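Researcher: Sequence recovery benchmark, item below. Answer with residues only.
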């Protein structure tokens, strides 16, 4: 029986944190409006931010914490920026 990989191992081995969406769930980019794409980007950014927070909270190694803190700041900035764009376009998310 294989044990689940910890966040620290995934962080340093480069394995994806989230599996890709199954092919049936993917929408064609040409079918999406710019507002739909922005909402998708916001959902992705929210997931990245949640993962960054979880990663930061789990790590204990000093170097890993430094990396995770920069990653957390970047994820927070991206999410805030996308929310600002949605507000300017008057899109409710």
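Model:
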């Amino acid at each position: 029986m294989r044990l689940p990989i910890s966040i620290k191992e995934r962080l340093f081995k480069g394995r994806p944190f989230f599996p890709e969406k199954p092919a049936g769930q993917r929408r064609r980019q040409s079918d999406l409006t710019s507002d739909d794409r922005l909402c998708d980007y916001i959902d992705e950014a929210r997931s990245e931010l949640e993962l960054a927070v979880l990663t930061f909270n789990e790590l204990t190694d000093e170097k890993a914490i430094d990396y995770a803190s920069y990653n957390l700041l970047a994820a927070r900035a991206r999410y805030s920026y996308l929310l600002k764009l949605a507000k300017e376009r008057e899109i409710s998310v």
